[in-house]
Amino acid sequence: MREAEYHDLSDDADYAASSQQGSSLVARTDSSKRSSLHEPGVAEILYSMDNVAMHPTRYASERIRGRLKLIRQGNSILMTWIPYKGQSSNGRFSEEDKNLYSIRAVPFTDIRSIRRHTPTLGWQYVIVVMQSGLAFPPLYFYNGGVKQFLATIKQHVFLMRSAEDANVFLVNDFHNPLQKEEGQQGGNEVGQQKTCHTEKPKITLVYSRRKNKGREREREAREERNGYKEDEGGRMFPFQVLHPQLVWLMNYPLMMITQRMLLIKSFASSFRENVSQRRKHHDPAQDLSIQVLEKFSLVTRFARDTTAQIFRDGRVGERKRDQSSPEHHPSRFEDSEKVPEVPVSPDRLEKTSSRKQSSGEEAATDVGMFELINFKEFDKLSLVWGKPRQPPLGHEEWITFLDIEGRIVDSEALRKRIFYGGMEHNMRKEIWRFLLGCHSYDSTYAEREYLVSVKKSEYEILKRQWQSISAEQAKRFTKFRERKGLIDKDVVRTDRSLSFYDGDDNSNVYLLRDILLTYSFYNFDLGYCQGMSDLLSPIVYVMRDESESFWCFVSLMERLGPNFNRDQSGMHSQLFALSKLVELLDSPLHNYFQQNDCLNYFFCFRWILIQFKREFEYEKTMRLWEVLWTHYLSEHLHLYVCVAILKRCRSKIIGEQMDFDSLLKYINELSGHIDLDAILRDAEALCICAGENGTACIPPGTPPSLPIEDASIYHQPDADIL
Amino acid sequence: MPSRRRALLKVIILGDSGYVNKKFSNQYKATIGADFLTKEVQFEDRLFTLQIWDTAGQERFQSLGVAFYRGADCCVLVYDVNVMKSFDNLNNWREEFLIQASPSDPENFPFVVIGNKIDVDGGNSRVVSEKKARAWCASKGNIPYIETSAKEGINIEDAFQVIAKNALKTGEEEEIIYLPDTIDVGSSSQQRSSGCEC
């Protein structure tokens, strides 16, 4: 079996093999490490506690139990936590998955603080926060012993209770860099310490090698271009690798505890999915989680800067020396087993990861945890975080998504790309048709061309239906007259400030009118409703073609049509979902709305009815729409956008004690003052935070979800649409 | 006595879509949901803020009125003197308002009717006579009636005076109903002016 997989190594299927090997290898080095720790009498176990567990997910079956130890080795005090092997076989974690969570000999010089949690119900746990600001997942002490754990540390390391929080213990708060240097660079024990970490990059690489399936080349090209990384599902990784230990940032002061927990939960589950080879392509949570965490953590960012600084100033320099004098390597390897450059199974590494290997190695600096934060990548990262939105998709990049006959090979990747950056304006005419569903992603150029022409004549037929109504006939056709009157009135007050629609006798205004009137015959039951002209205007502006605009509008209305239901059911279900989401994601605001009788959320009516069309300038609206239409994170991202905006206004809303009326005015007047990119980032973060809980807030069939199919069979539109 | 009056008056404007707010430049857009403008009005030597609410005109949005009409002090029904249908619909609008806003005393809730666009075609295209309109207003509990041309600015200020005057009626009555014990307390007026409780 392994043989077979080796044959595939050049390509993609090595993951299973490598991970298998990796795990055994990890286990091996693990034991060798342990023996090295116990070597010439330097290592001494100060503390050992069994049944200390991590809870990567909320599922009891997926808890990982292990042994926590404090070890003294020379001058260093190290902490380790190693999961038990072979236990919880019914759990969903494989051995290698569990190993990813291991804490391997982290020196206390790298630990900033330990937070103790002693809830009255449930297990005591601690959260260990690194100098970088990153934190390990909570360690639950099933058998108690937190006090003893801290007491032991205190005996050997300077431990100080935080003045701000009695449950936070600051480690080495005086933070003497010299001491650190000493610990890292001086003497024999350093080598041993490095030993402890040698397996880490392997895990890293095992992990990152998973992303070598399929369209590796294209992805590489895209990565190069975009400066971020993608996994096998086309998901982006701003990090070299998503290591579970890296992402438990606990210092995001802007978030409330509940959100934190949500975040942790959602990250944990997404990570689990990622690790456990279930390639759920529509779960982009990983990279986002990091961004989210990052975003909310000024402290962390600061800490990370510091970390990067350390890398640059200190160890990286050392590593570079290593490279420049390769003859040192063997000896180094011998006495320290520092192997990032000479991995234990070099064949595998070379085959698939050599491309990124250098970065992986650079990351594999001396400090156990930090090998994953590569300093080069770090620079990229801060860019990604500083400007998380990407540049819009342009033509050159667009064609890389197409095969020779014009099919979109990986629609998920395309949607993701657009989700994160939108597209250049000149691409909209072509790509919007896919996003809206006029064209299927797997259609060819020829098929699309044909479809366009068929649809064009279909449109003409529909249009003739009302064009053929004579003035005489119209006199006896009140419904038609009213509809036309309404449309006539609305098109002349739709985006008239735009040169495309301004002035008298503007043919584009007539285009709006004709399309809307034709639509009201195409879907006579829904008819015309105020707001539709707002939805159509950007489409005409982009498509510049009557028939194509019409069919794009039809597709859009398949999702947004229920916004205009006579009984307002579509709007009410969205406003209801919004109230649930705010309750979940911003309970202070929810409470405020509740107390002030604002829970109907009618002040967000305009936002939802016309997809924020009146809230942003034209270009930004188009950007937002194409992002929403990707349905990449959620079909209901627009609701998270609502939450994001409200959240940003919360202090003002509550501070000024706005009642419903002043709230409505305030919300309306936000128009033109909302930073779209920032809000999208927030919305994205909130969507991830909310996770399944968020999804549960949104009843099935809530627009813009497509109607549930059964319903369309039994549903009599006449009953509620007129 | 005057200190007891509310400084902020909530006024809802209703009428068939497209007849209502055309006066505000060519840049204006159909109202989605609801919005309001505020206008300072001097009435009997005191300044009031009129909060003039415009709601989405189309029938299918009327259910939103529950929230938007809440706490209204006055409802202004506008029709186009050149369009019979807009006049015919006045009664629908009135009833719809009473259903949605459910004021405590619907019989006496202050309405004002405005016949707009008297300027159009020099009045030649007019189809609803002033007499007819006044008759209808009389039949609905003597609703004050005023004719305007928003475009030409005819009678607009007068209309606001009438609106303010009528809106104040509820204000005073409600005040007596709700706050009988605090009428003479000096802080109450302050509270009201800042509180925007309508």
TrEMBL record, chain A:
Protein known as: TBC1 domain family member 15
Function as written in the Swiss-Prot or TrEMBL entry: Acts as a GTPase activating protein for RAB7A. Does not act on RAB4, RAB5 or RAB6.
Source organism: Dorcoceras hygrometricum
Region described as Disordered: 1-36, 207-234, 313-363
InterPro entries: Rab-GAP-TBC_dom (IPR000195), Rab-GAP_TBC_sf (IPR035969), SGSM1/2_RBD (IPR021935)
GO molecular function: GTPase activator activity
GO cellular component, one term: cytoplasm
Parts of the chain that traverse the membrane: none
Domain Rab-GAP TBC: 422-632
TrEMBL record, chain B:
Keywords: GTP-binding, Lipoprotein, Membrane, Methylation, Nucleotide-binding, Prenylation, Protein transport, Transport
Lineage of producing organism: Eukaryota, Viridiplantae, Streptophyta, Embryophyta, Tracheophyta
Subcellular location as annotated: Endomembrane system
Gene Ontology cellular component annotations, sorted alphabetically: endomembrane system; vacuolar membrane
Protein name per Swiss-Prot or TrEMBL: RAS-related GTP-binding family protein
Family statement drawn from the similarity comment of this UniProt entry: Belongs to the small GTPase superfamily. Rab family.
InterPro entries, alphabetized: P-loop_NTPase, Small_GTP-bd, Small_GTPase
Membrane topology, record value: Lipid-anchor
Residues making up the signal peptide according to the UniProt record: none
GO molecular function terms noted in the UniProt entry: GTP binding; GTPase activity
Keyword GTP-binding found: yes
Pfam families per the UniProt record, alphabetical: Ras
